[in-house]
Amino acid sequence: MKIAILGARGRLGAALVRKWGSRPKKRGEKAPHTVRAFARPELDLLDPKTIDRCLGKKEPFDWVVNCAAQTNVDACERQPEQARLVNTVAARHIAERCARTGARFIHISTDYVFDGRQRVPYDEEAAPSPLSVYGQSKADGEFGVLAALPEAIVARVSWVFGPEKASFIDMLISRALGHAKVAAIANKWSTPTYTEDLADWLGALVAADAPGGVYHLCNAGGCSWREYGEHALHCAADQGLPVKTKTVAPLEIEELEGFVAERPVYTVMSTARFTNLTKIAPRPWEDAVRDYVRDYPPY
Known about the structure:
Order of helices and strands: EHEHEHHEHEEHEEEHEEHEHH
Helix content: 25-40%
CATH architecture of the domain at 2-160 and 194-220 and 263-283: 3-Layer(aba) Sandwich
Strand content: 15-25%
Distance between the termini: 37 Å
Number of helices: 10
Low-confidence stretches: none
């Protein structure tokens, strides 16, 4: 496949470039795909002309994967028009471009399209009801993408971590290496998503030429930020990292006065649709975190 990856310097985009387009280690093997990576300044989602230049090659792409977005939740609240242009308008523009060239399109979205008021995992049929400008801009982006290109795939992800860019795990372990007390939010729940696994799941959708629509892609199970962090610290200790604590003190989300946007408190998602299509059951988030800390220990 000839694949364009937009947002190639982000955590997921960089992982896709590495896993899908890197040269195999064994002689004679070919890379799984021909990948063209686009990132700033070549790609600026505030300027539709740069999208057209990136995707307007003589040989059209088979697939376009859009990992680019404004994901800073509080920045979106402060600059709603920029959030709309990047997460809504640009997303639809990419879908329209793919419709003209015949490319399949994967658009990465978020669990923040939900309000977090239910206490069972959200499936793809659950109606979006975002609480923040960020969530609304992403929900509107999903709608625009599927209106312009019904065969597009919208992949909702949550709490993404991986080796290309530091995330919550890295920051918490790094803090525990120097401090005997660490804390994390105990009353907000979702599911971590490991980019190594996510790249494979997206690859499975490409290989299956999957039908369009919404798919939830995350590791199995759910946890709070506190549970997530405490498990990561235990994994770090098991790997011999000299963390000064394996206990994470609880914080209430209401205590964090620095937040501008309202966050949904429960966004665990069901991946049943993906599993029914591909017969792949995402592994538990605990196993993914353990492998990440073993293979990419933060120092």
